[in-house]
Amino acid sequence: MTDLPEVSGLTIGILGGTGDQGKGLARRFALAGHPVLIGSRDAGRAQEAADSIGNGARGAENAAVAAEADIVIVAVPWDGHKATLSALREPLAGKIVVDCVNPLGFDKQGAYALPVEEGSAAQQAAAVLTDSRVVAAFHHVSAVLLLDPAVDKVDLDVLVLGDDREATDTVQALASVIPGVRGVYGGRLRNAHQVEALTANLISINRRYKAHAGVRLTDI
Amino acid sequence: MTDLPEVSGLTIGILGGTGDQGKGLARRFALAGHPVLIGSRDAGRAQEAADSIGNGARGAENAAVAAEADIVIVAVPWDGHKATLSALREPLAGKIVVDCVNPLGFDKQGAYALPVEEGSAAQQAAAVLTDSRVVAAFHHVSAVLLLDPAVDKVDLDVLVLGDDREATDTVQALASVIPGVRGVYGGRLRNAHQVEALTANLISINRRYKAHAGVRLTDI
């Protein structure tokens, strides 16, 4: 593994931080000592989520979080992804924006990948946020494990994708502040679709094996 | 993990078995005691590949392999995938057909997933081979490791996808005869695209980390 940049002290903002995935990540970053801002369309709901996490997390509207945070994680529902980001182009300019959204559909047979015009949620973010440094990561984290106080370590490699080396290195370092987690470079943004879509397979695997499966890469 | 069926003694045929991926799998199945048939358009080249593997492997034309084998692995280049399978509909009828083809393109920036009209190579196989039991598996195996006599164990979970439980169970059992490998159910065939496409990411990972990365699933 390469040397990764120092990320301690960076303020982490999480758009859509009231959902389980966002809240789980917020909790782990707050536990690791990062100032954490939970964003929501509704400042009150954001504050509620922040209170439930504790460890100094604060809540605010998405726009305020986008403006204040050093690194912004996008954990909004796929349904509102494009509209939410389009409204935040300005406060997100120049920042590392980490998309962790999985465009999935569900039916009786389980989860499946939705087609995305831009190729992937991450590429859609990059198309909208032309002045931001878009990275894709944290797709496969289990919200259940992140939120479970009995789980000290999360046994998982976070695949980090992007075309800006300094940005992907930074997000790899950020992933690695969560005990047990390793941030691993996972390729360019054009190869984000399959990483997002693989979440559908993990859902099938979890159902079959009654597990919270994570991905580890061997030999690195 | 569930109990898997007995597969010892089953004859494994490998279409396109003269390529590295097919030859690597052939070698490991032969070492595990399976009768192995290597298929190619050219019987002479098939026999050469079989001779290089030894351990009782035999070579023949693809059609003869399809007719004789109990389980048939499809390891042909994506380029000839549809045509090869269309010509083998009859000998493959009723059999478990395991597609391990990754439809990838390559340019200066590395590998990327090709769009597939049917959704994935495996779904294309299922669309062509309507009387076969199509399973997708063995996408992420490293040919280099499979072919390396110094490698006793391959540190890898093989994701096995399909809609026929008995067939996926059988292929999971087959994957597990390779020392170190575990066959894991990975979802329905409609979720095969992202597993095939993830090979592009593994290629990027291998390049970045100078590795032969494999995938392991945690918590199962």
UniProtKB/TrEMBL annotation, chains A, B:
Name of the protein described by the UniProt record: Pyrroline-5-carboxylate reductase catalytic N-terminal domain-containing protein
Cellular component aspect of the GO annotation: plasma membrane
Claim: 4Fe-4S is one of the keywords in the record: no
Domain of life: Bacteria
MF annotations from Gene Ontology: coenzyme F420 binding; cupric reductase (NADH) activity; ferric-chelate reductase (NADPH) activity; NADP binding; oxidoreductase activity, acting on NAD(P)H
Gene Ontology biological-process annotations: copper ion import; NADPH regeneration
NCBIfam families: npdG
Entry keywords, A to Z: Oxidoreductase
Location of the Pyrroline-5-carboxylate reductase catalytic N-terminal domain: 11-103
Organism this protein belongs to: Nonomuraea dietziae
